[in-house]
User: Which sequence fits this backbone?
């Protein structure tokens, strides 16, 4: 592969001596891998989702738990997932089967890959709709529609947008088409290069917005909300969401990072790459929080406004700052780019698996997958308008109390809950168990190639801390922990 190319199609590559046996192209350099993995990690999860779920869960305590999860579960599992991908050098299903065979375990580990394929599919169905909202804001920003509007005015622009299914479907279709185009070509050199410039630009815009947030006079109130934990505000479900979000934001638990790892040259340090990606991802999320909450408080808005939060707050900032039209337009363009580089990684596990299983071309697989994702996306589109009243509530009642699993959840809420809070942590748990307990230690040692002290730390986190935390948080959300505590009288 040439130096500058970062294509990752499955064509044979004879130029790379490390990889002749597997016939897969590799990333041209460590930097390209970090860029691509950061591109996957940094997306709507950081700028759209992190602020609104923080607001729904009362702020500081949620943020603290989220940060703890990133450090103790996220980074070690990211290392494990990249490592499995690089050792397997295939799609997630085949990789898991191959590794299981290599270490003498059951082929049912392929199920882990399967769950990832399905999770990516489901996430992309709603991700594309929300990215469509961001796209819809570009012409509105550019035409100066938000100039001088107050909170009520901005709110009504958002409400009008989401209550119109045709418009949402149009933007969802455009975004999904853009995603499938890149995926179908299998060569993403152009996009990755663009990201080299766009990411720093996004960063600059976030800094400009932080300056605006400071100017609102409510910056310290925003910081207190974000960083001063008040544990009385956190629920068991909030803890589950914080953990689920750690997986979502780092693109973990569903094979996306595993597929990216499968293109990683053998010499690259997995630990360094994982830490850089997690650091940049967390930084972007915290910056988004530091921007949104001061604006929320300065305009007496509700932090718990839900999925529309950034669409109701950021235009207020742009509508009142110098060059707001320019910065606002640029911001939403960059947000769409960030979502784009994430969405291609969401569907990549399904594509690599589909091509291999049905022996059809990348293009055909992409078209078929695109049609299914598009149809599934309609569920999310309608849950903000036509079917917004159709909700489910799910509770488990025991002698010791009633545990609410889902409350008045629309189809979108349900999809989000199922994927982020259940499927990704479950996938992550399986990755941790496989990498920590079942994979031969000589293999993981060889792949990670870190000092023995660091290896012991990683091994401890991946064998004990991460699995136990995931299991406890699951049991907690299901009310089992409360149940046990009640009968034991503690
Ligand atoms: N990490 C992405 C974000 O924060 O927007 C979303 C995502 C991408 C999740 C890829 C999972 C994934 F495999």
Assistant:
């Amino acid at each position: 592969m040439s130096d500058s190319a970062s294509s990752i199609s499955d064509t044979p590559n004879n130029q790379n001596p490390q990889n002749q046996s597997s016939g897969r192209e590799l990333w041209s350099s460590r930097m390209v891998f970090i860029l691509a993995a950061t591109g996957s990690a940094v997306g709507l999860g950081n700028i759209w989702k992190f602020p609104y779920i923080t607001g729904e869960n009362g702020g500081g305590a949620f943020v603290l738990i989220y940060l703890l999860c990133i450090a103790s579960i996220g980074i070690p599992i990211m290392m494990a997932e990249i490592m499995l991908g690089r050792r397997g050098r295939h799609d997630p299903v085949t990789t898991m089967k191959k590794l299981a065979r290599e270490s003498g375990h059951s082929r049912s580990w392929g199920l882990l890959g399967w769950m990832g394929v399905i999770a990516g599919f489901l996430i992309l169905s709603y991700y594309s709709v929300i990215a469509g909202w961001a796209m819809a804001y570009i012409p509105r920003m550019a035409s100066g529609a938000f100039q001088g509007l107050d909170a009520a005015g901005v709110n009504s622009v958002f409400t009008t947008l989401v209550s119109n299914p045709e418009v949402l479907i149009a933007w969802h279709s455009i975004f999904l088409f853009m995603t499938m185009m890149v995926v179908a070509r299998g060569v993403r050199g152009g996009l990755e290069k663009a990201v080299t410039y766009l990411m720093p630009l996004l960063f600059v815009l976030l800094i400009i917005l932080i300056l605006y947030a400071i100017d609102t006079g409510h910056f310290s109130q925003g910081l207190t909300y974000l960083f001063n934990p008040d544990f009385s505000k956190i629920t068991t479900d909030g803890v589950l969401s914080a953990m689920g979000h750690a997986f979502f934001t780092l693109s973990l638990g569903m094979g996306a990072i595993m597929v990216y790892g499968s293109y990683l040259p053998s010499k690259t340090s997995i630990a360094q790459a994982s830490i850089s990606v997690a650091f940049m991802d967390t930084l972007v999320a915290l910056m988004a929080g530091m921007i949104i909450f001061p604006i929320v408080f300065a305009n007496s808005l509700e932090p718990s406004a839900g999925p529309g939060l950034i669409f109701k707050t950021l235009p207020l900032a742009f509508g009142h700052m110098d060059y707001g039209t320019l910065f606002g337009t640029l911001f939403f363009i960059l947000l769409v780019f960030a979502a784009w580089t994430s969405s291609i990684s969401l569907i990549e596990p399904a594509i690599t698996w589909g091509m291999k299983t049905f022996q059809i071309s990348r293009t055909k697989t992409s078209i078929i997958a695109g049609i299914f994702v598009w149809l599934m996306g309609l569920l999310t589109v309608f849950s903000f308008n036509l079917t917004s009243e159709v909700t489910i509530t799910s509770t488990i009642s025991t002698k010791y109390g009633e545990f609410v699993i889902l409350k008045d959840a629309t189809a979108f809420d349900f999809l989000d809950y199922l994927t982020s809070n259940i499927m990704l942590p479950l996938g992550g748990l399986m990755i941790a168990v496989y990498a920590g307990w079942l994979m031969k230690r000589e293999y993981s040692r060889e792949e990670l190639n870190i000092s023995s002290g660091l290896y012991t730390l990683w091994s401890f986190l991946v064998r004990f801390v991460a699995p136990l935390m995931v299991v406890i948080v699951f049991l907690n959300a299901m009310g089992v922990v409360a149940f046990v505590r009640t009968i034991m009288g503690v």
Notes: Residues 433 and 463 are 6 Å apart (CA to CA). Confidence is low (pLDDT under 50) at residues 1-21. The domain at 25-389 is CATH 1.10.4160.10 (Hydantoin permease). The pocket of 4-fluoro-L-phenylalanine is lined by residues 40-41, 43-46, 120, 123, 248-249, 251, 254, 256, 342, 345-346 (CB under 6 Å).
